[in-house]
Amino acid sequence: MHPWLYPIYLATQWLLPGSLLRGVSLVQHTGMLVSVIPVAYIVRKVFPGWRWWIVPASFLVALHPHFLYYSDQVLAEAFFLMATIWTMAGWVAWTTDAHPVTRLRFVRFLYFLIPLACVILLKPSGRMFWPGVVAALLLAGQWRALRWPHYTALALLLIVTPTVGKSSQGTRLLYTSTFPMTQLDTDLHRELKAEIAPMVKEARRDLRRFYRNDSDVKDFLEKPERYRPDLKLWVDLDQSEDEKRQEKVYWELAMEGLLHQPHLIPVMIFDKIVSSHVKGIKLDRFLGIYQAERMAQKYYYPGLSKERPELLRKLFGLPEGPLPEMAWFQSEVAPHPSGSLRTWFMNFCAGFEERLQMVHRTEEPKTRAIQDSITVVGVLTLIGLLASFLPAYLKTLGAISLMSLSYLCGVFAVGSTNPRFLVPIEPWTLLLLLFPGAVVFGWIRRRKSAGTA
Question: What is the per-residue pLDDT across 41-50, written as a single tens digit (0 to 9) for each?
Answer without folding.
Answer: 999 999 998 9
